[in-house]
Amino acid sequence: MAENPIHVCQAKIVSNEQIAKDTWELFLEPSDFDVTQILPGQFICLQPLNSQSAMARPFSISMVRTFKGIFSIWYKVVGENTRLLSQLPEGQQIKFWGPLGNGFIPEPNFYDEVWLVGGGIGIAPLCFFKKGITEYQEGIAKVFYGAKSKDELIDLQLDEDELTIATDDGSAGYHGLVTGLFFDKAKEYKDKKILVITCGPNKMMEQISSLCGLLKFDCYVILERIMACGIGACLGCSIKMKSGEMKRICHDGPVIKAEEVDWNALG
Amino acid sequence: MHSVKQVDLSVKIARLILQNPIMLASGCFGYGEEFFRIEGFDPSRLGAIVSKGTTLLPRDGNLQPRICEHRSGMVNSIGLENPGIDVVVEKKVPFMAWFGVPVILNISGFTIEEFAIMAKKANSAKGVSALEVNISCPNVHGGRIPFGCDPLIAGQVTAAVREATDLPIIVKLTPNVDEGIIGVIAQAVEAAGADAISMINTVKVENVGNIKIGGLSGRPIKQTALNLIKIVRRFVSVPIIGMGGIYNVPDVIEFLKAGCKGVAVGTANFSNPLVMMELKDGLGKYCLENGIQNLSQFYGAENH
Description:
By secondary structure, chain A is α/β, with parallel strands linked by helices. Chain A has helices spanning about 80-85, 125-135, 180-190, 200-215; strands spanning about 5-20, 25-30, 45, 55-60, 65, 70-75, 95-100, 115-120, 140-145, 165, 175, 195-200, 220, 240, 245-250, 255.
């Protein structure tokens, strides 16, 4: 068993603030856990706050601050557990387990550019990739970020040449879907070596990955699925790949090569 | 205050000596490799390890969606995804056996012959301590009605497994039968050679979320489990392993008092991956504080 251990620990809430419409940023300081081991793309499970919930709550890791020993998750308030989470005050302890899933560190030197394409709260794991690529590896990473409207956009604190925004209603940036924005840009770069990492609604990722296939861009998708255990034991998030192989999104994913994914199997 | 210095949590079930009554519920733990990675989860401290439902041939399981929360529990429709008994016996059982506690292999057949073939394969495999026979599977030669819904067929499956193996046999009963018949089903499997009974499997539900037919587990089935266990207790003398919505020490004690010798924990692992460790420690502590020297003091306590 060469796989890394999964830590179950308490973490102190360092901050828990609203950063966009229905969207919050939670910084956690784990008691007994080295945050430097977390890879971009990995996630944690929070113990459900609602005592009547049966399943673990998975959240992508958005940011790691190594020197402070803290990390953050960005979450959207969609149900009872996230509503309770948004009410937790600074200083409170919360139980989580992780790091989970198969994050990875891209090799930007192998590519002309790395493109990170996020839709809605799917932007959450991509910030961690962005930081890793530009700060630690001096590669070029550009973010394409789509949301329904301006008030749902999280301020990514990126320069104009690193970030392109699309909103469905045109209230900020490109008027339309982020896929449209991506298509326009991709055509200009069709002879370049581009790595694309995308996370968001399945329909969006499917379109991005099919264009990447045509343009011979390498593409990874970060998939989401309801999970019961988050560690690969229950098989609740297992899906069949094009090859026929079964993959557990929580354990063999969530980062999966786009060409492997059978989008119909995601239901 | 009846204080005691030592508590003996060990129990004897189906010819196996378990160091404590806390077992895994099949299907919630895979074949152990994943929970083994959880720091603080030590499988060697459990009473027994129970494998995921294993079939004769490899299975991909059902399409998504496979799980959803429902009434403080969860519904699953995994569809027995597993690599098949040959791979399980060769690659998974040796890992499970490494922890030094009994390994119970859950076998799920679709025909009586399949059960018998699997029992034979397990019999010659190293590391399997007992079989748990899942008779909730649809019987393809019997109109896809689960084996466990008919006393005669449940008995036939048990007899076929008994014939094929010397290993202890635990038959897992389905709750999806009439209360009036479950005792007879239990008697039939006991008469056919079952060394123990485990119950209950998940409770059938329809059209929950996007799941057409699934099995409900967790808190909402606890009372059903206890009611059915108390009925079965009156019909058989073999030990019962109880399961269904066990989350804390009072739940464990409730099942022991209802007449269970062992208890299994499933859904509770998902919202707290260390729950089984906590239950094992908590049960020991409870007994120490309450002057209980061994668990036989609980069995059938409600009947006295």
